[in-house]
């Protein structure tokens, strides 16, 4: 059997691969070794580019077939925070290894950045990785070993830093077995991964733990212990309560208690960044949100007190407002739509809608935010299915119709009119129901005009409704 460990030792000073492979690849350097194989830097003569080639340690015949199939699946992934997989090679029968040709990622590893990043940068780094992991999970793949040594920070042409998850050779399908030889980093492995020769049934929860452990490391400079909550209490000045909660939710011992998905973690970290660091939002959005927040007067300050290990009181001041959250996510979603980032826009919009609905249920300034939610629904209409849009429109009209008559403003009536109008537009054919929605839209718009007869916007919308109603009866 070919000894890959011995080959890697012999090649640290020599420029040759462990065994002959395609002549298109020229060995340039030995990059390192790990539990699953050894990695070389190589020049691809055919495509004229540098690549990384990983030689996988001792796969059996059966696992080799699985690895080849999974390499093909990995090659289809396309995300800036995931190392690209270009090809997989199967050597001749007298060798027990195979090799994988991957994107060459060069830059500092996250192990070198512990304690050097601000909280804002640390959250951004893990957020970007979580987006990549979410992309993997959507394709049915699990990384299985997210840790600081498997993340390299590269830079694009605009000198923007992009954290990239490497060592995708150990990734696999959800529920497939992790075979012996494909070790994980014990300090950052999930509890269910430790001490098992074969981990039955890979789980997305393992990657959630890895992302949480990575953020824990960036904040504290340490790997999480069996009592991460106690560890984090030593960093209350650097790690706010809300961020601690996000991290600890990823690190639950029971996989079923962890944050349910990488996409949910993306939403939580995005929410945290733009609420705690509002200057990260585009300037125009920040100004608009500030104006709306001031108009609605929604600053609510909560003081949180908790005893720490030294019995000293921890005091944290946090601005808590579901309306503020809704406005931030709503405007961010509309900005993403303008930039054609439609998937992220939909995620932000759904988060905003949930905050809006919660505000309606708690009767927090519903007339003031009705217009904003209506504009958001109109903006994201192309991103939703007809059924999704119908449900949201009906739910929102129900909330608004429950508002006390004395609280209804011109903006409220105009928003309600637009919602009913959108309901009619979802139905191509005339029916008794669409006629009822048309009448409700016209009634609400007329009420708005009665309150704001000088508003050209309201008058134009009323005329539009009259024209459409008349054309429908011709």
UniProtKB/TrEMBL annotation:
Annotated binding of ATP, by residue: 54
Bilayer-spanning residue ranges: 279-305
Keyword Kinase tagged: yes
Keywords: ATP-binding, Kinase, Membrane, Nucleotide-binding, Transferase, Transmembrane, Transmembrane helix
Domain Protein kinase, chain residue ranges per copy: 25-280
One Pfam family from the record: Pkinase
GO MF assignments: ATP binding; protein serine/threonine kinase activity
InterPro entries: Kinase-like_dom_sf, Prot_kinase_dom, Protein_kinase_ATP_BS
Coiled-coil positions: none
Designated name of the protein: Protein kinase domain-containing protein
């Amino acid at each position: 059997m070919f000894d890959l460990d011995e080959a890697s030792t012999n090649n640290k000073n020599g420029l040759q691969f462990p065994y002959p492979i395609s002549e298109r690849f020229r060995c340039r350097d030995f990059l390192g070794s790990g539990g699953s194989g050894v990695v070389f830097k190589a020049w691809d003569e055919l495509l004229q580019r540098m690549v990384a080639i990983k030689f996988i340690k001792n796969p059996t015949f059966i696992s080799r077939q699985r690895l080849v199939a999974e390499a093909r699946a990995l090659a289809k992934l396309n995300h800036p925070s995931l190392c690209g997989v270009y090809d997989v090679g199967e050597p001749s029968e007298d060798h027990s290894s195979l090799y994988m040709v991957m994107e060459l990622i060069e830059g500092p590893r996250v192990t070198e950045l512990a304690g050097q990043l601000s909280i804002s940068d640390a959250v951004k780094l893990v957020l970007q990785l979580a987006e990549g992991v979410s992309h993997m999970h959507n394709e049915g793949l699990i990384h299985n070993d997210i840790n600081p040594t498997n993340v390299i920070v590269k830079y694009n042409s605009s000198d923007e830093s992009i954290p990239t998850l490497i060592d995708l050779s150990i990734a696999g399908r959800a529920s497939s077995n992790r075979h012996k030889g494909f070790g994980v980093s014990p300090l950052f492995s999930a509890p269910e991964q430790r001490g098992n020769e074969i981990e039955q049934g890979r789980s997305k929860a393992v990657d959630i733990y890895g992302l949480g452990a990575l953020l824990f490391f960036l904040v504290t400079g340490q790997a999480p212990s069996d009592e991460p909550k106690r560890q984090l209490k030593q960093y209350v000045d650097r790690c706010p309560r809300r961020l601690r909660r996000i991290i600890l939710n990823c690190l639950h011992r029971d996989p079923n208690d962890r944050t349910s998905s990488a996409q949910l973690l993306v939403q939580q970290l995005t929410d945290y960044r733009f609420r705690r660091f509002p200057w990260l939002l585009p300037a125009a959005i920040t100004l608009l949100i500030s104006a709306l927040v001031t108009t609605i007067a929604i600053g609510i300050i909560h003081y949180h007190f908790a005893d720490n290990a030294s019995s000293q009181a921890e005091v944290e001041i946090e601005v808590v407002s579901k309306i503020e959250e809704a406005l931030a996510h709503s405007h961010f979603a509309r900005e993403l739509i303008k930039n054609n980032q439609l998937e992220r826009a939909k995620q932000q919009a759904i988060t905003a809608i949930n905050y809006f609905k919660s505000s309606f249920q708690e009767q927090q300034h519903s007339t003031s935010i009705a217009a904003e939610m209506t504009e958001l629904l109109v903006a994201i209409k192309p991103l939703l299915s007809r059924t999704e849009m119908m449900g949201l429109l009906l739910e929102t009209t129900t909330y608004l119709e429950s508002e006390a008559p004395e609280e209804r403003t011109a903006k409220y009536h105009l928003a309600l009119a637009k919602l009913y109008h959108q309901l009619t537009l979802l139905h191509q054919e005339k029916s008794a129901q669409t006629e009822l929605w048309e009448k409700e839209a016209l009634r609400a718009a007329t009420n708005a005009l009665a309150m704001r007869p000088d508003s050209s916007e309201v008058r134009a919308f009323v005329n539009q409704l009259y024209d459409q109603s008349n054309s429908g009866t011709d």
